[in-house]
Structure formats: structure tokens, C-alpha cells
Amino acid sequence: MRELTYYVAVTLDGRIAGPDGEFDAIPVTGDHIDMVFRDWRDTVPRVGLEAVGLEADGRRFDAVVMGWETYAAGLAATDDPYPHLDQYVFSRRHLDADVPAGITLTDEDPVALVRRLKAGEGVGIWLCGGGVLAGALIEEIDRLVLKVNPLVFGAGLPLFSGVYDPRSFVLERSTPYASGVIVNEYRRA
After folding, report:
1. Residue 113 and which of 46, 85, 90, 139 are 20 to 30 A apart at CA?
2. What is the DSSP string of 117-163?
3. What is the full DSSP assignment across the chain?
4. Domains and their CATH numbers in the chain
5. Among 30-34, 72-76, 88-92, 121-125, where is mean pLDDT lowest?
6. What are residue 168's phi and psi, to 5 degrees?
7. Contact 123/61 with Cβ under 8 angstroms?
8. Angle CA(51)–CA(57)–CA(59) in degrees, nearest 5?
9. 118-170 per-position pLDDT tens digit
10. Quick check: 85 and 42 in contact, CB under 8 A?
11. In 3D, which of 158, 148, 147, 143 has the Cα closest to residue 189?
12. Span 4-62, pLDDT tens digits
């Protein structure tokens, strides 16, 4: 069965973006970026891969799920961020948006869609964001990979939105980088 992995950059205070969705303070240079290109290449948008002359390798993921705001954050750069993945964008308000053929824009229940993907053939499913979608999919998340950045936003979009309902994950690995980023990898307890 395929796993759903929530792989995301987060601040020390648990924010994945600022109050208006901004994420430009998250560092995109440093020694942790080498790790991203080496170990998590499938999560790099096409424009990033092209800029450094790399291609996605399909080792970790072949599908990505994200909310509309996460998808829309990259529209200035491209309308097809991950053509190497099957892309599913959840929205209730933007179903009439014009998206490329490789993107499925849906208002389907995220849990139902993810369960169907997990039961199907493939490598893995990446939950790209955002926090509202992560909150809706919390019971389906098998792994958390948090790139914890040495920043405090003070306000912004949380890693998870939803009701208070504690869940346990087990730390499998924690890797610090000279950039100050620490990558924590968890599995569901």
C-alpha cells in the first residue's frame, strides 16, 4: 500500500507560511538544499529542477496532493509545478479554473481520494500543503518530514488546522544542517 507523506518546510513556531501565504523568508540556499536535491528531488518544482539541470527521479513520489492556496502560490512561476507527478488540487471555490491537463482540480472529499490513491499502484503520495488540507488528512498521514527552519513567524498558516485531537508520531531521524535547518522524519505511532 502506498504511503502519504507530509513533507513540508515549517518554522520553529509551527508555521508553513505567513498570514497572507508568504513563504519568502524560508531559506532556499544552504547545505540542506543539497539534501533536498539528492533525497527529495520529486518535491522540487519543474522550474527548480530545470534551473539546476536535474530531472525528477520518481524514487519517493509519483503523486502529489495540495490545497488551492498551495497551488496558487506558485502560479507566478508556472501553472504546472510538478509535471513529473500526478497532481491533485483540492478546491471548493476554483473548480472552473483553467489548469493544465496533468492536474486534477477537485472538490472531492480529500480522505476518500487519498484512500483510493493509497490503495492503488504507485510509489508514494506527497502531501505538499497546506495546513487545512493536512488537518483534514491527519488520519491518513503515514509519515511527517518536517524541514524545521530557524525562524519564528509569530503569525501565519499553521502546519495543521483543525480541532484539538492529539495524535502520536515516532521520531525516526533528525538531521541538523549548518544552515540551521533540522530535518525531522516521523512515522505514525
Report:
1. 46
2. HHHSSSS-EEEEE-HHHHHHTGGG--EEEEEEES---SSSEES--S-
3. ---EEEEEEEETTSEEE-TTS--TTS---SHHHHHHHHH-GGGS-HHHHHHHT-----SS-SEEEEEHHHHHHTTTT-S-S-TTSEEEEE-SS-TT----TTEEEE-S-HHHHHHHHHHSSSS-EEEEE-HHHHHHTGGG--EEEEEEES---SSSEES--S------EEEEEEEE-TTS-EEEEEEE-
4. 4-18+58-165 (3.40.430.10)
5. 72-76
6. -110, 140
7. yes
8. 140
9. 999 999 999 999 999 999 999 999 999 999 999 999 999 999 999 999 999 99
10. yes
11. 143
12. 999 999 999 999 999 999 999 999 999 999 999 999 999 999 999 999 999 999 999 99
Q: CA distances (Å), 135 to each of 46, 130, 139, 169, in order?
A: 27, 9, 9, 15
Q: What is the pTM of this model?
A: 0.96
At residue 150, what is the residue type? P
